[in-house]
Amino acid sequence: MLHDVKVAHPEISHADLFAVAGCAAIEFLGGPSVPFNFGRSDDADESRAVPHGRLPDASQGADHLRALFGKRMGFTDQEIVALSGAHTLGRCHEVRSGFDGPWTSKPLKFDNEYFVNLVTKKWRPRKWHGKFQFEGM
Predict the structure, then answer these.
(1) For site-directed labelling of 43, which of 18, 57, 117, 121 has its Cα 20 to 30 A away?
(2) DSSP 85
(3) DSSP readout, 2-65?
(4) How far is CA 68 from CA 8, 42, 72, 81, 116, in A?
(5) Would you state the pLDDT for residue 32?
(6) How far is Cα 97 from Cα 131, in angstroms, rounded to an integer?
């Protein structure tokens, strides 16, 4: 969706483009206005980036997330958990990840429901034909 913007403005790094789009989306969906300054540069050789088209594999657990976000990108556990809060928006799609369903009852509203659900709902294995996943009760 941002390809046409990048083509029209090649002086903007992909890093800045994705970051400013994220800030705009958060505000559009009811979240706070996030201060933004341009100036990020793209990684010269993408050696620290996840290969294109690849998402973190939720079925591999915390060690996988630590290897991906901690070792590769320098995130602490606290920062990884904060990053997971992005799941308050949208949903998982079986064709992309093997998992399916929204993470919250309002997937187009920026709020704290994702974290509230994690600590207040009772969780059980979902009965379906896709990858093993839990569902809230």
Answers:
(1) 57
(2) G
(3) -HHHHHH-TTS-HHHHHHHHHHHHHHHTT-PPPP--------SS-TTSPPTT----GGGHHHHH
(4) 32, 18, 5, 13, 25
(5) 92
(6) 9
What is the residue type of 134? F
Q: What is the pLDDT of residue 52?
A: 64
* DSSP states along 87-136: GGSSEE-HHHHS--EESSS-TTS-SSHHHHHHHHS-EEE--SSSS--EEE
Tell me the two tokens of residue 124.
């059980």
* 10-residue stretch averages of pLDDT, the chain, 137 residues long: 94 94 92 93 78 73 89 91 90 88 93 94 95 91
Sorted by where each begins, the domain ranges of the chain are: 1-42
Q: What's CA 114's distance to the chain center, in Å?
A: 12
Radius of gyration of the chain from Cα atoms? 17
Q: Which two tokens stand for residue 17?
A: 């483009």
